[in-house]
Design brief:
The chain is elongated and about 95 Å long. The longest helix has 29 residues. A five-stranded parallel beta sheet has the order 5-4-1-6-7, sandwiched between helices. Helix 14 links the parallel strand 8 and strand 9. With about 625 residues, it is α/β, with parallel strands linked by helices. The protein has 27 helices and 16 strands.
């Protein structure tokens, strides 16, 4: 995470006495592509030309040839600055194209460039501010594209105006890197070097060189690929270069978050981690739901809150997902275990007495939905009576309490508050449409399907219950045959089930998908409706501003996805093999981050608090400062 695009940096420099003009580098400063690198654009161009039968080679092979042609055209000129037409003359010779086919291919590259180009919002704001302050604006670039094309792009993005000097190396036959293009710029402006500020991203061509000529400079580094974006590029070959488009989308989203952000690190984590994960999961889920005839998806709280928000945003971008209803369903392990508590067998005792992070009388009372005094009374004349005051029960004490609970099972289940919990949960499920005939499925984060065991029991054991999971690290041994689970990223029956070993992977995913409300403790009736009872006596995982920044980044990622990338993602995620490759790539990017995070991004997690307990007892810092 870098902060060169500080809103205060440019105004301070542009207000320098005697400053009369500002020049801007074009590519990766004023404009960026929806491709991470030029070679990614060449790969897409290769696909286009193959579809037009202009070449029979693979897109990857064409990309290599396009790079080679540019190098050959550069070597053929004394100034080493070829124009696009000269590059295509080399390609035409090597591919035996006619003039018509050469011009068609050249136009195809220009069209792709035009479609992929977009403005850097903060730099556009600087240009507008400088112009309003009476400064002259100019643009310079070491580039093979025609100046008329570059001007058209800059004017389209409201950056250049007619009359603004635009100096392109291939037409000036001079370069920034050599300094000669800055000489031409000063001559065109008819200004001394000290009166001009140059803004650009390249340390040498936009920094050291213009400074050596006497110009003032401002570095823009935000347009460079960040930690996450660079790691997406590692998997280009496995994903047909789609991962490069994800990297570029992450960059576009990150740049859109920069102006005035109070939490830039969390914005960056949202654009580089949360956004790609949940956007891909949403597309995968919609594809699976369409194939299965599912018409309604229930996103279970609390993780489902942001998953639903992103799914709704994705639904606006992919027409094939229209018509699938996305609802938020308030639920939790404790609320649904209560709803299904028709006995106190092994399955119920496993979660009631789960020692993570610890269990004692107070925690057990909460899990049973009883007051501490009520539980103390139940245990008073049993072998467990002396354990009530113990702060944490060990294995022997847990076994003792389990035996008592089995003996008192009928008494506990008949208690009015326990019976009322079951009845209210059933009414809530009916109210939310779970008993209707509309085909529906549940959306869950992870990790074993145990909540689906309880939901199936609470719903009266329907013949089929479908759930889509982001991750399944294992399968609950209590899953009935009627419950069908599918998982996007982690599956216990393949290599993915072992990929998170040694990492706090589950905790990280839960932290990234945190909600803005407490866990669901149960249900209550209010104004004729059954509503969730939310835990309110412990803080949420993230402070509100931090959570908002994380989610803004994820939302920006979805909003910046180009339409062709959405369609390609949906296509790949509809295929089991390519979906698995994409999911594994997302996991590897997350794993790289967890193993060796940039310090400024790691520090963002110091604001986060976490608990392994179902009702958020014993919250602790997620990371140490």
């Amino acid at each position: 995470m870098r902060t060169d695009l500080d809103p205060a940096a440019f105004p301070a420099l542009s207000a320098t006495p005697g400053l009369r003009a500002v020049s801007f580098d074009v590519f990766d400063t004023a404009l960026v592509r929806t491709f991470a690198r030029p070679t990614d654009l060449f790969f897409a161009l290769g696909r286009t030309l193959a579809a037009q039968r202009l070449t029979a080679m693979t897109p990857e092979r064409f990309s290599h040839l396009r790079v080679q042609a540019e190098a050959q055209a550069r070597c053929a000129r004394a100034d080493a600055e070829p124009q696009l037409a000269e590059i295509y003359q080399v390609l035409a010779t090597r591919l035996d194209w006619t003039d018509d086919r050469r011009m068609t291919a050249e136009r195809a590259e220009l069209t792709l460039e035009q479609q992929s180009m977009t403005a850097v919002p903060q730099v556009r704001g600087w240009i507008q501010a400088a112009r309003a302050a009476g400064k002259r604006i100019a643009f310079v670039s070491d580039m093979y594209l025609p100046v008329s094309f570059v001007r058209e792009m800059l004017e389209k993005e409201k950056m250049a105006q007619p009359g603004d000097p635009i100096l392109i190396s291939c037409e000036q036959r001079a370069t920034k890197s050599s300094g000669t293009l800055f000489d031409r710029l000063l001559a065109t402006l008819a200004l001394p070097a000290g009166d001009v500020l140059h803004v650009g991203d390249h340390a040498h061509s936009d920094g050291a060189v213009p400074r050596s000529k006497g110009l003032r400079t401002l570095a823009v580094h935000e347009t460079r690929l960040d930690f996450f974006e660079q790691r997406f590029l590692v998997y280009q070959h496995d994903t047909g270069h789609l991962s490069g488009r994800l990297a570029a989308t992450s960059r576009l989203a990150r740049l859109a978050c920069v102006p005035g952000s109070a939490e830039p690190a969390l914005n960056e984590i949202g654009t580089g981690l949360l956004g790609p994960w949940l956007a891909c999961f949403a597309l995968w889920t919609f594809a699976r739901a369409r194939q299965a005839g599912i018409r309604r998806l229930y996103f279970v709280s609390r993780d489902g809150q942001v998953m639903r928000e992103i799914a709704l945003a994705v639904q606006q971008r992919w027409a094939d997902a229209a018509g699938i209803e996305c609802r938020y369903l308030h639920g939790s392990r404790i609320a649904w275990h209560h709803a299904a508590m028709n006995d106190l067998g092994d399955h119920q005792l496993q979660w009631l007495l789960n020692p993570q992070p610890r269990v004692n009388a107070a925690i057990l009372a909460g899990r049973l939905g009883l007051s501490p005094d009520r539980l103390t009374g139940l245990l008073a004349t049993t072998p467990a009576a002396g354990l009530v005051a113990h702060p944490a029960w060990g294995p022997a004490e847990i076994d003792c309490v389990a035996g008592v609970l089995r003996q008192k099972s009928a008494e506990i289940l008949a208690l009015p508050e326990v019976a009322a919990r079951r009845e209210l949960a059933h009414r809530y499920f009916e109210q939310e449409g779970l008993l209707e005939e509309t085909p529906w499925a549940v959306i869950e984060l992870g990790w074993s399907g145990s909540m689906m065991v309880s939901l199936h029991e609470a719903l009266g054991r329907p013949p089929k219950l479908m759930a889509y999971y982001l991750n399944l690290s294992k399968m609950s041994p209590d899953l009935p045959a009627a419950v069908h689970l599918e998982s996007f990223a982690i599956n216990p029956d393949d290599v993915s089930g072992h990929m998170g070993q040694g990492l706090r992977f589950a905790e990280m995913i839960e932290v990234l998908t945190a909600a803005d409300h407490g866990t669901v403790l149960g249900y209550k009736e209010s104004s004729g409706q059954v509503r969730p009872v939310l835990k309110s006596d412990s803080p949420c995982i993230w402070p509100p501003a931090a959570l908002a920044a994380l989610r803004e980044g994820a939302q920006q990622f979805v909003s910046k996805l180009p339409g062709d990338v959405v369609r390609e993602l949906a296509s790949q995620l509809s295929n089991d093999l390519s979906a698995r490759l994409l999911a594994h790539q997302l996991f590897f990017v997350l794993a790289d981050f967890m193993r060796d995070p940039p310090p400024e991004l790691a520090r963002a997690f110091t604001a986060c608090r976490f608990s392994e307990d179902p009702v958020d007892h014993d919250q602790r810092p997620f990371v140490q400062p």
